[in-house]
Amino acid sequence: MRSIINYLSEIVSGVWSLMKGMKVTGSYFFRPGTIVTQKYPNNRKDLVMFDRFKGEVIMPHNENNEHKCTGCGICEINCPNGTIEVISKTIVTEDGKKKRVIDKHIYRLGMCTFCALCVKTCPSNALAFSQKFEHAVFNRELLIKQLNKPGSQIMKGVE
Amino acid sequence: MLPDIVENNSITVQSEPTWRVIYDFTGLTRWIDMSLHNAMSPFWTTVTEMLIIGVLILVFYAIVGLFLVYAERKVCAFMQNRLGPNRVGPFGIFQTIADLIKLLFVELIPISNADKFLFNLAPFIVIIASFMAIAAIPFALGLHAIDLNIGILYVIAVSSMGVIGVLLAGWSSNNKYSLIGAIRSGAQIVSYELSVGLALITVVILAGSMQLSVIVESQREGWFIFRGHIPAFIAFIIYLISSTAETNRGPFDLAEAESELTAVYDTEYSGIKFAFFFLAEYMNMFIVASIAATVFLGGWMPFHVASWDGFNHVMDFIPPFIWYLGKTAFVIFMMMWFKWTFPRLRIDQLLTLEWKYLLPVNLVNVLIMAFIVLMGWHF
Questions:
Q1: Is B281 a residue whose pLDDT tops 50?
Q2: Are residues A33 and A66 in the same domain?
Q3: Which of A21, A29, A39 sits opposite B78 (nearest CB)?
Q4: For chain B, which terminus, N or C, has the lower number of CB atoms within 10 Å?
């Protein structure tokens, strides 16, 4: 008798669990608002990526063409695959002191794994991630980028 | 070739409601038959009629196949929070046509050491089996190619012939995956055929006939799923499960296990031969769905609630063909819902489900139904 009850309750509980699954998929089917797919190339104009998206490494500049990079080279040391190369030079300031500033901040997009170690460890928060993700180009040379804009200077107060 | 529903039910002819006269195709088919008889000898008349029906069913077959592939992809996508095909034409409705054109141009690759004759024969056996089954299905009043007095038996017999094609395809491909899959498919269809038959027997007991037109006609006052109380409902559920298994669809798609056996008996096929298998799979789904609609949900009979005359009149003016298609679409949707919800079964779980659960439940169910009919407890 017990085995018959077990048999029947097995069938009922099995059907019940299957019905639960059908409820989930059925509710998705009848609510088209839950669709997450975006028609990508068509919505390029108003496509907004989320905040934490890692597109590519950039160096933000303010309106006076000033950045925060001190040329310390910590990003270059931390980069696991040699993506970043910091070329610095020494200049003499107005008050006669020698100072090391950045000449070129080279970033090789083709080698980057977007691990964010450079952005996290930068002591002066000079690096950031942009939300641009369409990186395809016709020439590999174009993937080697210089992050500091030409003629840019270090921001006042950042040492 | 012509249906003779009216003769079978000559008692009801006097009190035909208007909708049956408007939507009756019997007059049209009889007129075609008469004019062909006037034009040529009886032999050539039969040949011409067979050709006409063959071409009509072929066209219907192609349209339904294309539509079902599209519908499956869309339903699947919506259940997984996706959009599905949406590039070719509005909402992607021409996607399957584009796929078909592509398949037609694909090279037919010859397989070395394959059994050439059986290899080429297999897709045709599969497709002919589903073709023969579709002939016995009543689409509407008078739209019924062959009205056999053992219609249900014929449909079960013919539709299970498709497994021969699957086995041949697996055997002749000279490929171990194909053979394993074909044998799995054989075990599966042989087991589940039993449940399909018993579920249909439950209704045959209630209807008292195996003729599909009589079964439809006797659901005039209420569909069998309502008239047969709980046993009919259980039989409907069992029919849905076992017919899903019989058509080799998920969650019972062991015969087509892409992940472990590389799409099994389709593995070595390409181009139009592969398209035949693909089309036959969807047509088998359509056929089992229309059998379910005919036997349990009243075929082309409108939905009637006893003593709601106004409601019944409104229902009557929807054409029977639309009723038939709607019910079939409902059953197909249920099967797609199953496929995209349930996890796949292993081969031993598959056979356990059939032999330890469906079969005993089904046998008890037939007994209860016989008792109910004996006592006259059905509506």
A1: yes
A2: no
A3: A29
A4: C
